[in-house]
Amino acid sequence: MSKIGNAFKNGKAFIGFLTAGDPSLDKTYEYIMTMEKAGADLIEIGIPFSDPIAEGIVIQEADLRALKAGTRIDDVFALVERVRKETQIPLVFLTYLNPVFHYGAEKFFARCQETGMDGIIIPDMPFEERDECAAAAKAHGIDIISMIAPTSKDRIQKIAKVGEGFLYIVSSLGVTGTRTEIKTDLKEIIDTAKEVTDVPCAVGFGINTTEQAEKIGRVADGVIVGSAIVKIIAKYGDDAAPHIYDYVKAMKEATIRG
Amino acid sequence: MSTGRFGPFGGQYIPETLMNEIQRLEKAYSHYKSDPDFQAELKDLLDNYANRPSLLYYAERMTKDLGGAKVYLKREDLNHTGAHKINNALGQCLLAKKMGKTRVIAETGAGQHGVATATAAAFLGLECEVFMGEEDTIRQALNVYRMELLGAKVHAVTSGSRVLKDAVNEAMREWVSRVDDTHYVIGSTMGPHPFPMMVRDFQSVISKEARQQILEREGKLPSAVLACVGGGSNAMGMFYHFIGDKDVKLIGCEAAGKGIDTKMHAATMAKGEVGIFHGMKSIFCQNEDGQIDEVYSISAGLDYPGIGPEHAYLHQTGRAQYIPVKDDEAVEAFEYLARTEGIICAIESAHAVYEAMQIAPKMSKDDIIIVCLSGRGDKDVAAIARYKGRDLHE
Lengths: 258, 394
Fold this sequence. Notes:
Chain B: InterPro entries: Trp_synth_b_CS (IPR006653), Trp_synth_beta (IPR006654), Trp_synth_beta/beta-like (IPR023026), TrpB-like_PALP (IPR001926), TrpB-like_PALP_sf (IPR036052). The complex is a heterodimer. Chain A is of the alpha/beta class.
């Protein structure tokens, strides 16, 4: 098992997301460290992409801010190196296939290994297209985190069987962004997946309140929060650290309560 | 690896949420493609509603003036709604209805695909919502109102560069949010499989007719066929039944905007690289980090940073050639065709007309070329007037 398993060792995991380079790489470094201090078990680092089709408006805008600030893929790798000097917290990337493909999958995953990344989530790489990255990722010990959606149905077990790191259970239809209500029967999806895998299941998309985190913590191994954190960064810019700390701490506590 | 490849290009690079739906679509299309009842119903719609077959028009004045090859125009501009887009919109909306969908969504650049989809939806009793870049809702204001008249809801997309690429992003996001009752009518030979194949099939009626018409008329095949290329639907339609005729040159004309040595162009083949975006592996204009470029063309319909995967394949194998044509050249052809033949064509189609004007004089009088006139130019008149410095507004 990769280092990602460590995130789920001490009960329910809280997974926090932010976009690298929003508002600056220095701040991203600071906010990653803040999230860890506040109790986050795993950090998802978004490599900004010009056209993130699975993202709602909050993360779309964060990506555009990061790109406008001049964030390059190699800068994100340098950020990871810097983070790794301080902490061994599991780290995964979230990005789209084109930046990886254009960088060259072999070179990209080699850099992931050198800098100390543990996994990657690529929303526009479904099960059928894993070959774009599978061999290179495996050769360099990087887990490909697969997504399972409310519409996956008969695909759940096929995806779960090749699951690595953790399974990313998409809470609802649509793109990322906060929602007031999550109606999907997550327990059924998770139970179906667990029949064929021991890989932990974490739920993301739309989660922003402690009530939601507690509720989802009851059925899942982890809770993933992105847009709500990115919103705090958008609001407070360079001074977001104390706000991120308070928010992540409260969400982590709620997740464990679940 | 997924199915639906043209050599290395194509595929199904979409979020997991859409995978079951896209596979359902693949199955449904493969069923109806060979269902005689479906094909008969579609043919009836094309013939008796959309005004097919379209004319193959001999442009005698243009031919004489250019003094070389005989020039024929495949008059898709005479179709109902004024462009080739109706061929695909009727096909997909009929399929959506057979699949039990009650709502269709579409992206549009110039507005022609949006209008065609809104038309087909009105005719077939489907709810319709169209996503259009805010920038395009301004340059193609007339088409926005046409869609509204047809009962469609038009969303002005304010994300990104606010043009066609962003409209596709937004339509995909909408589809992920509401997939049960909704079919996404992709307007070009792009996106995840089966769209590039399905849209090409629906558009291939263009070359099916043209090939037959020219054989009846001239008793021989053309030396070349030309079409403009954005995502590539009218070009795939124009090329398809000629692909096996090795002596027929296939020429796609892409938008070079202010020139391919500037940043203001949408010349994917000339300047792009292989990438994966909008559900497909193909060629895209992108930067050194794989970020998709903001592209530019005077023509909203060609203002797209990618090209359909089958074109990428025809390019890679050398079967088709792709030529960049600039804004001012397209405008020159737009005016030329109006004056010589009395036909005001779409500024998109004018890109292909320009290339015909370049090659026809160099060819012999025994040669024949066919240009796909993909649409009519009413929608462009005000914008061209402004381009020429006339302060004209609709």
